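Weekly modeling sync, notes
Attendees: AB, CL, MP (scribe)

Item 1: holo prediction request
CL wants a bound-state model with zinc ion before deciding which constructs to order. AB pointed out that an apo prediction alone won't tell us much about the pocket. Agreed to run with the ligand included and paste results into these notes for async review.

Input as submitted:
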Amino acid sequence: MTDAPLKLFNSLTRSIEVFEPVHPGEARVYTCGPTVYNYPHIGNMRAYVFADVLGRTLSWKGLKLTHVINITDVGHLTDDADAGEDKMEKMAAEKAQSIWDIAEHYKQAYWADVKALNIRQPAQWTVATDYVPQMIEFAKGIADKHCYELESGLYFDVSTVADYGRLARAQTDEGEGRIEAVEGKRNAADFAIWRKTPPGETRQMEWDSPWGKGAPGWHLECSVMSGEVLGFPFDIHTGGIDHREIHHPNEIAQNQAHCCTNGLDDPRNSGARIWMHNNFLVERSGKMSKSSGEFLRLQLLIDRGYHPLAYRLMCLQAHYRSELEFSWEGLGAALTRLKRMVMAYAKWHGQLSLPPREVPGDSWERERITRDLITRFDAAIASDLNTAEALTIIEELLALKRVAPECIVTAAVRMDAVLGLGLGKLERADLRIRPKATAISEAEIEAALARRKEARAAKDFAASDAIRDELAAQGVEVMDGDPLGWEWKLG
Ligand code: AMP
Ligand code: ZN
């Protein structure tokens, strides 16, 4: 039922490949995590929903998963390509707080979003500042053959490894112009693996190294944390599609240098067997940008009354390699879809405790239907994580008729282990749109509706209409005869 070969799109070869674990029976995955200088926006969270579905799919396939996500608390500059200030230092200066406090605050905020989106805990969160000695050792190991020193730091010479930039499909000279000039760089795409603290300055985060006091480069961090915890080569490295252009090509170059391998015709020489990238979540009015004041955080969706798992469902409706456009209408539609699934699941679950009904026909034949759906579900997710199709299959399952509830519930629980919607844990009432800014409480609404029911029973339609109008004035829409069974909603 679950033996469709797992096929994944490898950005390095730009082709779909059958997943073959480096270590039989295991899957080792590294995901580039957040830079904790600010709250993540919902586009960032799309990257982790994608990595989570990948991890859940590997588990569904019976592989022992070791997933690592890092937390970057030093070294990520305001420009991915080696220019600008350290994002953490900049925010700490703006807020007049210590970097450690900033990192802790935003790490906790990120973890809250991870939890709210049912993203499973990875086997390990690696924090960049915990690995600085290993980063220095790594840099020492490649410095002689692959690096050169400038006043501002230790730079990696990209011409010393074969196939530099293949992941981005870029020519080395295309790097010209994309990087703020650093005097003395041999190639435009060369990047700092160690950034020296400028003379006369003290950074909040700095360490001694053979190249002077300073801090590691962002690309070095991920090479070191992934290699340390998972061992080169590991199976899959993930990140957002922007990382395909600079961060990951640079990680790959370092991995090649460190592992003394060359040439990317064998993808394992890159440090990982497969490189996977999610496409972007986009929003037309620019609300995704963290510099735009109120930007699209998961908390904003929650404050406007949307359950966070509606956003997870919104992500699953699109293929991870497609761009996804955010809109409030789209989020509302995802919420309604989730509501229907939760209600259907609850109906089946509620039937479990009832005495078995006599259903005409051959039970083997009827249960074959659920087995076929599991097979189709497996084929969908094994096909480069086709979650959009997988969703239609679980809906088909929940809409079946005259099938033993145990079969439906068991199959739905299995499918949801991949989708992560938590159908069994959600209650219909959790999915009501409930904006935070509304003054009226639920108890007050329920009390008003109870009075309205009495008035209607007594055929006092004037009183009933008056209550309806009072509620409307407070933003509560009374929904008589709504097919989803809601009695009211906050507009
Ligand atoms: P950062 O904290 O900036 O390193 O980003 C965290 C993750 O989010 C990275 O994997 C990025 O590639 C990814 N990312 C950034 N913006 C978006 C977006 N709009 N949609 C999807 N993923 C994104
Ligand atoms: Zn990274």
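Recorded for review: The first helix runs from residue 42 to 60.
Action items: CL to compare against the apo run; MP to circulate these notes.
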